[in-house]
């Protein structure tokens, strides 16, 4: 055997790397599609549960949006749906190959939605002030990070640079 047949050429190595990358992309695409299906199922179940809660409140004539408990039930369910749909949307972006990974801004946005939901369903009488302050601080910090990232993106667009992540 000669030296060339024992050591693959650099073109063969590149071709092998491309083949492996395509296999991984297919795997990633499959996982993303499975996640979309699972989250879609969760959205359907959450929508059903929300509808059931609203109907039960209407039938029992207890549907008074000014009551804190009713407000918590209805808007807590709505926020849960919004969070799940935002997750699904961020995964759909990946499956459509508009981006390779979930963007940090999306994760921060979903976190902001989750904290907003927490404040909506929060029973202020059952939680210590320090925990409420910690949640508020987390909300402000995430909001500041999201705002800074938007400013960075605007600056990058203005100066013709690509987004870094």
Automatic annotation (TrEMBL):
Transmembrane segments: 30-50, 70-87, 107-126, 132-149
Transmembrane found in the keyword field: yes
Keyword annotations from UniProtKB, A to Z: Cell membrane, Membrane, Transmembrane, Transmembrane helix
Primary location group: membrane
Pfam families: PsiE
Subcellular compartments: Cell membrane
Membrane topology note: Multi-pass membrane protein
UniProt-listed InterPro entries: P_starv_induced_PsiE-like (IPR020948)
Keyword Transmembrane: yes
The protein's name: Phosphate-starvation-inducible PsiE family protein
């Amino acid at each position: 055997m000669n030296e060339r047949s024992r050591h693959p050429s650099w073109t063969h190595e590149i071709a092998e790397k491309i083949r492996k990358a395509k296999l991984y992309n297919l795997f990633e695409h499959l996982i993303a599609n499975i996640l979309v299906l699972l989250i879609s199922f969760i959205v359907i179940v959450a929508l059903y549960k929300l509808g059931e809660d609203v109907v039960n409140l209407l039938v029992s004539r207890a549907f008074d949006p000014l009551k804190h408990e009713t407000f918590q039930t209805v808007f807590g369910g709505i926020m849960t749906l919004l969070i799940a749909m935002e997750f699904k949307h961020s995964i759909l972006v990946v499956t459509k190959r508009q981006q390779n990974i979930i963007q940090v801004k999306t994760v921060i946005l979903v976190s902001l939605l989750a904290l907003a939901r927490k404040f909506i369903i929060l029973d202020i009488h059952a939680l210590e002030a320090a925990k409420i302050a910690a949640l508020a601080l987390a909300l402000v910090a995430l909001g500041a990070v999201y705002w800074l990232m938007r400013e960075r993106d605007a600056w990058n667009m203005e100066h013709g640079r690509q987004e870094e992540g």
